[in-house]
Amino acid sequence: MAGHEDNVIETQGLNHWFGTGEARKQALFDINLQFPRGSLSVLMGPSGSGKTTFLTLIGCLRDVMDGSVQLLGHEMNGATRATNERLRKRSGFIFQAHNLHESLTAMQNVMMG
């Protein structure tokens, strides 16, 4: 997929599953999204709908199984460990259980993300 320079994140045909054979559980089904630079996006859904799986994929915390994820113009499907590490350093990720540092201000906590 040829990424668009104005998109920070772009996914096409993204699928993800856990397990194999009879135990295989599909978590993401053919996700096609674009997140333009400077935009604000909200990801909502019920528990178990794949939000965390999606976020860990676009945050370079999980390998892409099927489909395309482009982060900052780099294809993540088949990316090397070095590419993943380099891109993680250029992006921030705050987990739901965020474990904030009480001694830091909100801005300092965000800057550490």
Short description:
InterPro entries: ABC_transporter-like_ATP-bd, ABC_transpr_LolD-like, P-loop_NTPase. Helix content is 21%, strand content 28%.
3D architecture notes:
- With 113 residues, the protein is of the alpha+beta class.
- The protein has a single domain, classed as P-loop containing nucleotide triphosphate hydrolases (Rossmann fold), CATH 3.40.50.
- It has 3 helices and 4 strands.
- Strands 2-1-3-4 form a 4-stranded antiparallel β-sheet, covered by helices on one side.
- β1 and β2 form a beta hairpin.
- The protein is globular and about 50 Å long.
- The two termini are 29 Å apart.
- The model has no long low-confidence stretch (mean pLDDT 89).
- One of its GO terms (molecular function) is transmembrane transporter activity.
- It comes from hydrothermal vent metagenome.
- This is Methionine ABC transporter ATP-binding protein.
- InterPro entries: ABC_transporter-like_ATP-bd, ABC_transpr_LolD-like, P-loop_NTPase.
- Keywords: ATP-binding, Nucleotide-binding.
